[in-house]
Fold this sequence. Notes:
By secondary structure, the protein is of the alpha+beta class.
Amino acid sequence: xxxxxxxxxxxxxxxxxxxxxxxxxxxxxxxxxxxxxxxxxxxxxxxxxxxxxxxxxxxxxxxxxxxxxxxxxxxxxxxxxxxxxxxxxxxxxxxxxxxxxxxxxxxxxxxxxxxxxxxxxxxxxxxxxxxxxxxxxxxxxxxxxxxxxxxxxxxxxxxxxxxxxxxxxxxxxxxxxxxxxxxxxxxxxxxxxxxxxxxxxxxxxxxxxxxxxxxxxxxxxxxxxxxxxxxxxxxxxxxxxxxxxxxxxxxxxxxxxxxxxxxxxxxxxxxxxxxxxxxxxxxxxxxxxxxxxxxxxxxxxxxxxxxxxxxxxxxxxxxxxxxxxxxxxxxxxxxxxxxxxxxxxxxxxxxxxxxxxxxxxxxxxxxxxxxxxxxxxxxxxxxxxxxxxxxxxxxxxxxxxxxxxxxxxxxxxxxxxxxxxxxxxxxxxxxxxxxxxxxxxxxxxxxxxxxxxxxxxxxxxxxxxxxxxxxxxxxxxxxxxxxxxxxxxxxxxxxxxxxxxxxxxxxxxxxxxxxxxxxxxxxxxxxxxxxxxxxxxxxxxxxxxxxxxxxxxxxxxxxxxxxxxxxxxxxxxxxxxxxxxxxxxxxxxxxxxxxxxxxxxxxxxxxxxx
Length: 610
């Protein structure tokens, strides 16, 4: 149940009936005592928030008590009835008591309830900040409107509806001024005035940043930011007498802002003044780094005030922004075009100090990006810790400011108590509560200082880890280079072996080709000889027997002689053959014999007819 506590003993804001004692609700109309004196809502029974009001909420002893008149919910308003653990929206229209409970039949007419009346659209809340510093520590004036609406009724009721009252633009401005200013300072502080002057999408980016940051803060309170409009983002330059020299309009909504004293950036500052601003920014960055690197207990007594700590936080966000631009760039030229030249020069100097020269431009750029990534990670670690602390502190400050507002409302309601003694006692108690709430706010601010100084220690640890990561990365690169060299040597050996194999194959091919050539020549010579023999044989065939026998080779001559003998014998008759047989005797050893010998005179072998 969403409990709403009124002011005991106050007069009823609806029927003006006076009460005393411990009464919480009006004895006449049943309205909770201490309800806001909103005539349209309470007397006319027209549930609509005022021009500068986001919500009006009050309670009744019995739900049926709201029907002192016909209930009207106009189209510009939304109404909710909280009863038990549920919140029921009342659709727009006009209601009599019976028709109302017939349409919303789950509501209990005899039970107490809380009523929340809010707007259909969001309530625009304006903010104006005169000194929001850029990365060069130039101040700009920023004006915004933040449109706030109720997103989650139960969550809103738990935090805001602890007592009857209203929430308007003034209360929301008080609650949101610090977080809006912080988000704007973070966005502007991470950028230079030149970058913002050349950024055509600056308004959209700033609006998106504010809306996203406020969404995280307000979600648990049931609120939401439907829109953020940057009305003005302007830098003014003044002379020594504080007279305005000119203005640079970084962003402006021309529908709501009249642009005057417009000047170009180069007309406001000379080259010498820009150099002086850049030196001041660089010195501030060095002081911040020295403070982070201190390791003694004196850091708790560091010279950084809360404003200085905010400035240091802006320096860190600026570094993260520039490192991010280097990581997004594809080349050194592109990084320079995106305005990261200063950080790029620092990285190149750090790389040169370590003698980390690379063989080519692509490898060197990859090394620079890796170095930027390591440093960006270190800055992000510190920034995330700071952001977490700042978010927690913002939530605590928001809750305490809300509590202070509620106490002030109670004080105003307590002044309506008729009994002087009771009024005095109630005011005394509320003043004590108010002093306690103020003390808690001071404690939160002190905790913010301590958290800022602790952030220096965390930043120092992050930078130490940065050095370790950088060393690990360089060691890994060295291992990869050694492995690459080894792979290169292996590949070179493989190439040598491959070339050797190719030369062997080529030599073998040449040898085979040479061998084929002699073999071909031999075959050609053999063919020529064969042709010559054939031609000779054909010539011999045309000759007579005597010529053949004279011209034939020795082996062939013997054969030819035998053949001719055989052919001659074939022409002889039997008597001729017998006479020839008795005369043709020969020794097997080749010794000379006579025709009449029967035995060889040399070896004694028997002679046979041939």
